[in-house]
Specification:
single chain, alpha/beta, Nucleotidyltransferase, domain 5, 3 domains, 6-stranded mixed beta sheet, 12 helices
Protein backbone atom coordinates (compact mmCIF):
# COMPACT_ATOMS: atom_id res chain seq x y z
CA UNK A 1 0.00 0.00 0.00
CA UNK A 2 1.40 3.35 -1.06
CA UNK A 3 1.89 5.65 1.96
CA UNK A 4 0.58 9.21 2.10
CA UNK A 5 3.76 11.27 2.02
CA UNK A 6 3.87 14.01 4.63
CA UNK A 7 6.83 16.37 4.70
CA UNK A 8 7.20 18.61 7.75
CA UNK A 9 9.59 21.41 8.48
CA UNK A 10 11.28 21.33 11.85
CA UNK A 11 9.26 24.27 13.19
CA UNK A 12 5.99 22.51 12.20
CA UNK A 13 7.13 19.29 13.89
CA UNK A 14 8.00 21.23 17.02
CA UNK A 15 4.60 22.94 17.03
CA UNK A 16 2.72 19.66 16.55
CA UNK A 17 4.67 18.03 19.39
CA UNK A 18 3.85 21.00 21.63
CA UNK A 19 0.14 20.77 20.78
CA UNK A 20 0.18 17.03 21.43
CA UNK A 21 1.81 17.58 24.82
CA UNK A 22 -0.31 20.47 26.10
CA UNK A 23 -3.79 19.93 24.64
CA UNK A 24 -6.67 18.69 26.83
CA UNK A 25 -8.37 17.23 23.73
CA UNK A 26 -7.26 13.59 23.32
CA UNK A 27 -8.60 13.52 19.74
CA UNK A 28 -6.41 16.45 18.71
CA UNK A 29 -3.39 14.83 20.38
CA UNK A 30 -4.10 11.63 18.43
CA UNK A 31 -4.35 13.51 15.10
CA UNK A 32 -1.05 15.27 15.76
CA UNK A 33 0.54 11.90 16.47
CA UNK A 34 -0.78 10.52 13.18
CA UNK A 35 0.83 13.35 11.20
CA UNK A 36 4.12 13.02 13.07
CA UNK A 37 4.17 9.26 12.39
CA UNK A 38 3.39 9.81 8.71
CA UNK A 39 6.26 12.29 8.51
CA UNK A 40 8.56 9.39 9.45
CA UNK A 41 7.35 7.44 6.41
CA UNK A 42 4.95 5.05 8.13
CA UNK A 43 1.94 3.81 6.15
CA UNK A 44 -1.66 4.40 7.25
CA UNK A 45 -2.19 0.80 8.36
CA UNK A 46 0.95 0.81 10.46
CA UNK A 47 -0.09 4.07 12.14
CA UNK A 48 -3.58 2.68 12.78
CA UNK A 49 -2.16 -0.50 14.35
CA UNK A 50 0.22 1.50 16.55
CA UNK A 51 -2.46 3.93 17.77
CA UNK A 52 -5.32 1.43 18.02
CA UNK A 53 -7.66 3.15 15.54
CA UNK A 54 -9.03 2.52 12.06
CA UNK A 55 -6.96 2.98 8.89
CA UNK A 56 -9.76 5.00 7.30
CA UNK A 57 -9.59 7.56 10.11
CA UNK A 58 -5.82 7.88 9.69
CA UNK A 59 -6.25 8.39 5.93
CA UNK A 60 -8.91 11.08 6.44
CA UNK A 61 -6.75 12.96 8.97
CA UNK A 62 -3.65 12.84 6.74
CA UNK A 63 -5.68 13.89 3.70
CA UNK A 64 -7.13 16.91 5.54
CA UNK A 65 -3.67 17.87 6.79
CA UNK A 66 -2.27 17.77 3.25
CA UNK A 67 -5.12 19.95 2.00
CA UNK A 68 -5.50 22.41 4.86
CA UNK A 69 -2.40 22.20 7.02
CA UNK A 70 -2.73 22.52 10.78
CA UNK A 71 -6.33 23.79 10.46
CA UNK A 72 -7.28 20.36 9.14
CA UNK A 73 -6.46 18.82 12.52
CA UNK A 74 -9.16 20.73 14.38
CA UNK A 75 -12.32 18.98 15.57
CA UNK A 76 -15.10 19.65 13.06
CA UNK A 77 -18.01 18.40 15.13
CA UNK A 78 -18.86 22.01 15.96
CA UNK A 79 -20.04 22.27 12.32
CA UNK A 80 -22.69 19.62 12.99
CA UNK A 81 -25.04 22.19 14.53
CA UNK A 82 -25.70 23.72 17.93
CA UNK A 83 -23.91 21.97 20.79
CA UNK A 84 -26.45 20.19 22.99
CA UNK A 85 -24.38 20.04 26.15
CA UNK A 86 -23.95 23.78 26.44
CA UNK A 87 -23.68 25.69 29.71
CA UNK A 88 -27.42 26.38 29.86
CA UNK A 89 -28.33 22.69 29.40
CA UNK A 90 -25.84 21.58 32.04
CA UNK A 91 -27.18 24.20 34.46
CA UNK A 92 -30.72 22.88 33.97
CA UNK A 93 -29.49 19.31 34.50
CA UNK A 94 -27.79 20.31 37.76
CA UNK A 95 -31.08 21.70 39.07
CA UNK A 96 -33.04 18.60 38.02
CA UNK A 97 -30.63 16.14 39.67
CA UNK A 98 -30.86 18.13 42.92
CA UNK A 99 -34.58 17.31 43.03
CA UNK A 100 -36.49 14.01 42.83
CA UNK A 101 -38.61 12.44 40.03
CA UNK A 102 -41.90 13.00 41.96
CA UNK A 103 -41.17 16.74 41.71
CA UNK A 104 -41.69 16.34 37.95
CA UNK A 105 -44.80 14.14 38.13
CA UNK A 106 -43.20 10.66 38.16
CA UNK A 107 -43.91 7.94 40.74
CA UNK A 108 -40.37 6.53 40.67
CA UNK A 109 -38.39 7.90 43.66
CA UNK A 110 -34.88 7.69 42.15
CA UNK A 111 -33.29 8.95 38.95
CA UNK A 112 -32.16 6.84 36.01
CA UNK A 113 -30.32 8.21 33.00
CA UNK A 114 -33.28 7.33 30.79
CA UNK A 115 -35.66 9.25 33.04
CA UNK A 116 -33.31 12.24 33.09
CA UNK A 117 -33.31 12.20 29.28
CA UNK A 118 -37.11 12.38 29.27
CA UNK A 119 -37.34 15.16 31.86
CA UNK A 120 -34.62 17.24 30.19
CA UNK A 121 -36.27 16.80 26.79
CA UNK A 122 -39.50 18.13 28.28
CA UNK A 123 -37.79 21.08 29.98
CA UNK A 124 -35.30 22.08 27.29
CA UNK A 125 -36.70 20.70 24.06
CA UNK A 126 -33.39 18.89 23.47
CA UNK A 127 -33.33 15.09 23.45
CA UNK A 128 -29.94 13.46 23.93
CA UNK A 129 -28.78 9.86 23.86
CA UNK A 130 -28.33 7.98 27.14
CA UNK A 131 -24.54 7.90 26.66
CA UNK A 132 -24.59 11.67 26.10
CA UNK A 133 -26.51 12.00 29.36
CA UNK A 134 -23.73 10.04 31.07
CA UNK A 135 -21.20 12.57 29.77
CA UNK A 136 -23.40 15.43 30.90
CA UNK A 137 -23.69 14.00 34.41
CA UNK A 138 -19.93 13.54 34.58
CA UNK A 139 -19.41 17.14 33.40
CA UNK A 140 -21.64 18.53 36.16
CA UNK A 141 -19.90 16.36 38.77
CA UNK A 142 -23.02 14.31 39.54
CA UNK A 143 -22.46 10.94 41.21
CA UNK A 144 -24.45 7.94 42.36
CA UNK A 145 -24.40 7.87 46.14
CA UNK A 146 -26.32 6.72 49.16
CA UNK A 147 -28.69 9.39 50.53
CA UNK A 148 -28.36 10.39 54.17
CA UNK A 149 -31.50 9.63 56.19
CA UNK A 150 -32.69 12.54 58.32
CA UNK A 151 -35.59 13.13 60.67
CA UNK A 152 -37.34 16.47 60.55
CA UNK A 153 -37.12 18.61 63.66
CA UNK A 154 -40.58 18.80 65.29
CA UNK A 155 -39.91 22.35 66.48
CA UNK A 156 -41.02 25.35 64.46
CA UNK A 157 -38.28 26.95 62.40
CA UNK A 158 -38.18 30.14 64.53
CA UNK A 159 -37.92 28.11 67.75
CA UNK A 160 -35.16 25.93 66.30
CA UNK A 161 -33.17 28.89 65.02
CA UNK A 162 -33.61 30.73 68.33
CA UNK A 163 -32.10 27.80 70.27
CA UNK A 164 -29.21 27.45 67.83
CA UNK A 165 -28.46 31.18 68.10
CA UNK A 166 -28.37 30.89 71.88
CA UNK A 167 -25.86 28.05 71.73
CA UNK A 168 -23.69 29.87 69.20
CA UNK A 169 -23.76 32.95 71.40
CA UNK A 170 -22.50 30.86 74.33
CA UNK A 171 -19.62 29.59 72.21
CA UNK A 172 -18.76 33.02 70.87
CA UNK A 173 -18.86 34.80 74.21
CA UNK A 174 -17.35 32.06 76.35
CA UNK A 175 -15.91 33.72 79.51
CA UNK A 176 -12.28 33.21 80.39
CA UNK A 177 -11.91 30.07 82.46
CA UNK A 178 -15.00 28.38 80.96
CA UNK A 179 -14.87 25.35 78.67
CA UNK A 180 -17.37 24.22 76.02
CA UNK A 181 -17.66 20.65 74.74
CA UNK A 182 -19.88 18.72 72.32
CA UNK A 183 -21.19 15.50 73.90
CA UNK A 184 -22.67 12.38 72.33
CA UNK A 185 -22.73 8.59 72.57
CA UNK A 186 -21.91 5.99 69.92
CA UNK A 187 -22.78 2.27 69.66
CA UNK A 188 -20.10 -0.29 68.80
CA UNK A 189 -21.54 -3.53 67.35
CA UNK A 190 -19.61 -6.73 66.85
CA UNK A 191 -21.76 -7.43 63.80
CA UNK A 192 -20.08 -5.11 61.28
CA UNK A 193 -21.77 -2.21 59.54
CA UNK A 194 -21.78 -2.91 55.80
CA UNK A 195 -20.56 -0.07 53.60
CA UNK A 196 -19.18 0.74 50.16
CA UNK A 197 -15.71 -0.51 49.22
CA UNK A 198 -13.65 -0.84 46.05
CA UNK A 199 -13.79 -4.26 44.39
CA UNK A 200 -12.34 -5.79 41.25
CA UNK A 201 -14.55 -6.49 38.28
CA UNK A 202 -16.72 -9.64 38.65
CA UNK A 203 -15.84 -9.84 42.36
CA UNK A 204 -17.95 -9.14 45.42
CA UNK A 205 -16.11 -9.05 48.70
CA UNK A 206 -17.56 -10.88 51.67
CA UNK A 207 -17.75 -9.68 55.26
CA UNK A 208 -18.01 -12.49 57.79
CA UNK A 209 -20.45 -11.67 60.59
CA UNK A 210 -20.04 -13.36 63.99
CA UNK A 211 -23.80 -14.00 64.15
CA UNK A 212 -24.28 -13.42 67.88
CA UNK A 213 -24.05 -9.67 68.21
CA UNK A 214 -22.33 -7.92 71.11
CA UNK A 215 -22.41 -4.22 71.94
CA UNK A 216 -20.25 -1.67 73.66
CA UNK A 217 -20.97 2.01 74.12
CA UNK A 218 -18.79 5.09 74.17
CA UNK A 219 -19.69 8.50 75.53
CA UNK A 220 -17.44 11.28 74.29
CA UNK A 221 -16.98 15.02 74.75
CA UNK A 222 -15.11 17.06 72.14
CA UNK A 223 -13.63 20.39 73.23
CA UNK A 224 -15.12 23.06 70.96
CA UNK A 225 -11.90 25.10 70.92
CA UNK A 226 -8.99 22.66 71.23
CA UNK A 227 -10.55 19.43 69.83
CA UNK A 228 -9.37 17.56 72.92
CA UNK A 229 -11.37 14.43 73.54
CA UNK A 230 -12.71 12.86 76.72
CA UNK A 231 -14.18 9.34 76.34
CA UNK A 232 -15.67 6.72 78.65
CA UNK A 233 -16.67 3.17 77.74
CA UNK A 234 -19.41 0.92 79.14
CA UNK A 235 -21.46 -2.17 78.43
CA UNK A 236 -24.76 -0.32 78.77
CA UNK A 237 -26.06 2.93 77.32
CA UNK A 238 -27.73 4.45 80.34
CA UNK A 239 -27.57 7.34 82.79
CA UNK A 240 -24.54 5.77 84.51
CA UNK A 241 -22.55 6.18 81.28
CA UNK A 242 -23.57 9.84 80.96
CA UNK A 243 -22.80 10.60 84.60
CA UNK A 244 -19.39 8.92 84.27
CA UNK A 245 -18.54 11.21 81.36
CA UNK A 246 -19.50 14.30 83.39
CA UNK A 247 -17.18 13.11 86.14
CA UNK A 248 -14.39 12.52 83.61
CA UNK A 249 -14.87 16.06 82.30
CA UNK A 250 -14.39 17.47 85.81
CA UNK A 251 -11.19 15.44 86.11
CA UNK A 252 -9.89 16.61 82.71
CA UNK A 253 -10.72 20.28 83.36
CA UNK A 254 -10.10 20.76 87.11
CA UNK A 255 -9.42 24.48 86.71
CA UNK A 256 -12.50 25.26 84.63
CA UNK A 257 -15.02 27.59 86.27
CA UNK A 258 -17.84 26.10 84.23
CA UNK A 259 -18.05 23.35 81.62
CA UNK A 260 -20.71 24.08 79.01
CA UNK A 261 -21.97 20.81 77.52
CA UNK A 262 -23.75 20.93 74.13
CA UNK A 263 -25.77 17.75 73.65
CA UNK A 264 -28.89 16.22 72.12
CA UNK A 265 -32.18 15.28 73.78
CA UNK A 266 -31.48 11.59 74.34
CA UNK A 267 -33.43 10.42 77.39
CA UNK A 268 -30.40 9.51 79.52
CA UNK A 269 -29.32 13.16 79.43
CA UNK A 270 -32.43 14.34 81.27
CA UNK A 271 -33.31 11.40 83.51
CA UNK A 272 -33.84 11.99 87.25
CA UNK A 273 -30.46 10.41 87.98
CA UNK A 274 -28.71 12.61 85.43
CA UNK A 275 -30.40 15.81 86.64
CA UNK A 276 -29.37 14.98 90.20
CA UNK A 277 -25.79 14.38 89.07
CA UNK A 278 -25.67 17.71 87.23
CA UNK A 279 -27.05 19.49 90.31
CA UNK A 280 -24.35 17.79 92.38
CA UNK A 281 -21.67 19.59 90.37
CA UNK A 282 -22.98 22.85 91.87
CA UNK A 283 -23.21 24.87 88.68
CA UNK A 284 -19.82 23.88 87.29
CA UNK A 285 -21.52 21.85 84.55
CA UNK A 286 -24.16 23.59 82.40
CA UNK A 287 -26.17 21.65 79.82
CA UNK A 288 -27.23 23.26 76.53
CA UNK A 289 -29.71 21.04 74.70
CA UNK A 290 -29.82 21.19 70.90
CA UNK A 291 -33.17 21.17 69.08
CA UNK A 292 -34.40 17.62 68.35
CA UNK A 293 -32.86 15.84 65.37
CA UNK A 294 -30.05 18.30 64.64
CA UNK A 295 -26.99 16.02 64.39
CA UNK A 296 -25.18 18.44 62.07
CA UNK A 297 -24.97 20.96 64.93
CA UNK A 298 -23.12 18.49 67.16
CA UNK A 299 -19.51 18.46 65.98
CA UNK A 300 -18.61 15.18 67.67
CA UNK A 301 -20.98 13.38 65.27
CA UNK A 302 -18.32 13.75 62.56
CA UNK A 303 -15.82 12.01 64.82
CA UNK A 304 -18.17 9.06 65.23
CA UNK A 305 -18.67 8.92 61.45
CA UNK A 306 -14.90 8.66 61.04
CA UNK A 307 -14.82 5.94 63.72
CA UNK A 308 -17.30 3.83 61.75
CA UNK A 309 -15.44 4.48 58.49
CA UNK A 310 -12.01 3.54 59.87
CA UNK A 311 -12.93 0.80 62.35
CA UNK A 312 -16.40 -0.73 62.44
CA UNK A 313 -17.54 -0.71 58.80
CA UNK A 314 -16.84 -4.04 57.04
CA UNK A 315 -14.51 -5.05 59.89
CA UNK A 316 -13.31 -8.63 60.19
CA UNK A 317 -12.78 -8.92 63.95
CA UNK A 318 -14.08 -12.12 65.52
CA UNK A 319 -14.38 -10.88 69.11
CA UNK A 320 -15.53 -7.69 70.79
CA UNK A 321 -12.21 -7.30 72.59
CA UNK A 322 -10.32 -7.29 69.27
CA UNK A 323 -12.75 -4.72 67.88
CA UNK A 324 -12.47 -2.52 70.97
CA UNK A 325 -8.68 -2.55 70.65
CA UNK A 326 -9.16 -1.01 67.20
CA UNK A 327 -11.61 1.52 68.65
CA UNK A 328 -9.13 2.52 71.38
CA UNK A 329 -6.38 2.86 68.76
CA UNK A 330 -8.63 5.20 66.77
CA UNK A 331 -9.42 7.32 69.85
CA UNK A 332 -5.74 7.60 70.77
CA UNK A 333 -4.87 8.58 67.20
CA UNK A 334 -7.54 11.28 67.00
CA UNK A 335 -7.13 12.66 70.49
CA UNK A 336 -4.95 15.70 71.11
CA UNK A 337 -4.00 14.09 74.41
CA UNK A 338 -2.03 11.30 72.79
CA UNK A 339 -1.53 9.27 75.96
CA UNK A 340 -5.12 9.52 77.11
CA UNK A 341 -6.86 6.16 77.54
CA UNK A 342 -10.59 5.45 77.41
CA UNK A 343 -11.98 5.24 80.92
CA UNK A 344 -14.09 2.17 81.60
CA UNK A 345 -17.34 2.36 83.52
CA UNK A 346 -18.33 -0.50 85.78
CA UNK A 347 -21.24 -2.50 84.39
Amino acid sequence: MKPIVIELRNRVKKRLREIRRTTHDPGLAMRCQMVLQAAKGRMSQGIADALGCSRSWVSRVLGRFQAEGEAGLLDRREDNGQQKLDEWYLGQLHEVVAKRPPDYGYRRPTWTRELLVEVMARLTGQRVHVTTMSRALATTGARRGRPRPVVRCPWSKPAKNRRLREIRRVLKTLPKGDVAVYLDEVDIHLNPKIGLDWMNRDQQKEVVTPGQNEKRYLAGALNAATRELTVVEAGHKNSVLFIALLKALREDYPQARRIHVILDNYRIHSSQMSRAAVAGHEGRIVLHFLPPYCPNENRIERLWEDLHAEVTRNHGRATMEELMQDVRWFIRKRSVRRNQAIRKVAA
